[in-house]
Recover the amino acids of this structure.
């Protein structure tokens, strides 16, 4: 299926810029604080090799990107217990903060209007000095 005649193809940089204007992204410290107080659910969407290499964020729910919408849709039959409603504040975390922006927009389309993502992703979390556990360690 091709684009309509009046539309021009959009590159990924322009697409990211467009989608990010629709919500407020968060810094690592804010994500940490809101998760610690129970105001937000941290969701790690990195693939297994990155989690194994770099470790895990304590308390974050791991949902690989290809399952995200099914697991967080409050109306879905495959939802996680944490997917309690459309007002749930979700902070998505990918490796560097790119894939998570596209994922946040997908969650917005499901009505999860408070979904956002972590600027700089896991790498920003780690460089800020926030807690990380080795992937083989038990929280």
């Amino acid at each position: 299926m091709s684009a309509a005649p009046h539309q021009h193809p959009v590159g990924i940089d322009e697409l990211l810029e467009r989608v990010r204007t629709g919500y407020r992204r968060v810094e690592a410290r804010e994500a940490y604080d809101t998760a610690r107080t129970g105001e937000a659910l941290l969701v790690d969407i990195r693939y297994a090799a990155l989690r194994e290499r770099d470790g895990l964020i304590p308390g974050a729910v791991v949902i690989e990107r290809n399952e995200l919408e099914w697991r967080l849709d409050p109306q879905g039959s495959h939802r996680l217990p944490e997917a309690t409603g459309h007002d749930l504040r979700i902070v998505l975390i990918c490796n560097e903060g790119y894939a998570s922006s596209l994922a946040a927009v997908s969650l917005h389309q499901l009505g999860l209007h408070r979904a956002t993502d972590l600027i700089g992703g896991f790498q920003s979390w780690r460089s800020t000095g926030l807690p990380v556990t080795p992937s083989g360690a038990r929280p």
Q: What stands out?
A: The first strand starts at residue 41 and ends at 44. The radius of gyration is 15 Å.
